[in-house]
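note to self — DONT lose this again. spent like an hour looking for the file last time. sequence + predicted structure for the chain T wanted, 167 res
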Amino acid sequence: MNVLDHFSVPYLGLKNGIHQITFEVDDSFFHTFENSYVEGGKLKVEMSLDKRSDLAVADFIFDGDVRVTCDRCLQSFDHPIEGDSKLHIKIGVQDPDQDEVLFIDQETSSINFASYIYECICLLLPMSITHEDIDDCDPEMIAKLNKTNDDATKNDIWNSLKGLDLE
């Protein structure tokens, strides 16, 4: 059985109304996506699926931690993830102008939410992923970065122009 099969929800026989579903996301989930910058993690994803005759609305709530690499010191650490997202599910033909809408055909028996959950987790991460406190970074790497910054300041070509009197 595929790891992502646990993220499939039967749709065709589902009665109209609100359905609560909880997904557990772990390391094996992230390992199924190629070139993922999320190394692993443990999250709880709660989905409230409101199915109606013409469409469905899925509300997701994300809570947990993901293992990522610090952009500053290149050390892996657990970063907290918390947020929510909404996905509309409509029966019909794909419309490229509508974001956050999943189009399915009339005979779709189940919907796999794994890719959508993965995308939401990635979007909940900040653009620059660093330790919250620089003291948590790898001290050896920070020392190398500081040395590189000092060398760059000493060799800065603009420093030679500072003493130039243009008047």
